[in-house]
Structures are given as C-alpha cells and as structure tokens.
Amino acid sequence: MKTKILLVGCALVCISMPVLAQQDQSVDQDQDVQASEEDSNRERSENRGRERHDHRDRHDENFNYSYLELSSLGYDMDVGGIDIEPDGYKLKLSLSLGDSLFGVVDRRRTDGKLAGANYEFDTEGYGFGLRGDSWFASYTYNTWDVGNAEFDVDTIRLGFRNNWTDRLEFNASYSWNNIEDADNDDGFQAGFAYELFDGVELIAEYETIGGHLDIDYFSAGVRLNF
Question: What does the DSSP assignment read for 68-82?
Fold first, then answer.
C-alpha cells in the first residue's frame, strides 16, 4: 500500500514539474515585457525633457550677428512735395566681433523715373554696434546719393530682437538720423525673420523716417547666417 502511495506521489510530482516550469517561464516573460515597457516610457520621458530643454535654449540663446542679407527694396519718398518711388535691392553684411560687438556694411541700389527722366538713389553705410542678449545699439556713417546730389547721414540706432516662436523672430528699433545740411530726423523700424531651415531665414522689414524727406521703405528677402 505504501509503495503504491509513493508511486502515485512520484507520478504527480513528475506531472507537476513541467507545469510549474512553464508557469515560471511565463512569469519571467511577463516581467521582461513590463521592464521593457518601463524602459520605453522612461526613454520617452527623457526625450520630452530634452526637447523642452532645447526649446528653452533656442529662446534663451544670444542672437546671431554674423549674417548676409539680400533683399528687394522699394521706397516711397516725399522730397520737397515731390513724390518718388524708386526700387531696387539691398545688401547687408553683419559680422560678430567677440561677445558684445559687431560690424555692419549696408548698401542699397535703387532707381526710378521722374517726369520721364531716369534717376538713381543709392546709399552706402558702414558702422559698428554693441549688443546684449536681446538688445542692440549701433552707429552707422552713411552716404546718400540722389541724382547728382550727395550728402552724409549719421545714424544712431537702438533696438531689440525677440523670438516669438522657435522659428519666428520679431525685431524693432528707433533711429536718430543726422542728415547733412538738414534737420535731424527720427525713424522707426520693424521686421520679421522666419527660419526656413538651419542657417537660412526669410526676412521682411519696414522703416519710416520723418522730417523734410519723409522716407518710407519696405524690403523682403533672405538672410544667410554663418
């Protein structure tokens, strides 16, 4: 009788061992799946954190002052009661000089017609500036050539740049313009820059200068950062 009981017990043990082993294997697999899901969730959370950090960095970083701009340009000017609207292009080069200085070269070439006669309005400007995280101040010595008349213009500009989004920049400035043999004229400028991809931006700008010349201009083009 005891022998039969022992045989039955051994048989039950032999039968149950594979079942228990299968259950243990299933538990191990479930634990591996759970661990993998936890690792995946942790990785996604870390990626979101890095994205938020990068987002803040793009807003907090200093603006680039080394770039080349090429834009189409159109003027609307009232000179002595005569309205003229020359158009052409603008080329601007800015170079960062250390952590807080920059240099700038600005050239504009435009032409138009007045009473059937062609005329040109060309300007050249050379200057330097001081910059902070989002503000800037600059001085530019300009030469304006209107037809056969040439005169000098000293411009002091105070402005700021601000990132509205990761890709869209808004900038604005006030200018004081000391025009040779004329009164000093105030000016105001506003512009946008939209980043198409790394290093390339679309730009648009409007500026008005009051006084006896009453100058308004609009430009649109591209900026290459380097």
Answer: EEEEEEEEEEEETTE
CA angle 180, 101, 195 (to 5 degrees): 95
Q: Are residues 155 and 110 in the same domain?
A: yes
CATH number for position 150? 2.40.160.40
Query: Looking at the structure, do residues 35 and 139 belong to the same domain, yes or no?
Result: no
Nearest-Å Rg of the Cα atoms of the chain is 35
**Structural tokens at position 40:** 């995946």
pTM over 0.90: no
Question: Do 128 and 189 sit in the same domain of this protein?
Answer: yes
Q: What is the tens place of the pLDDT at every residue in 10-35?
A: 444 455 555 445 555 555 566 665 66
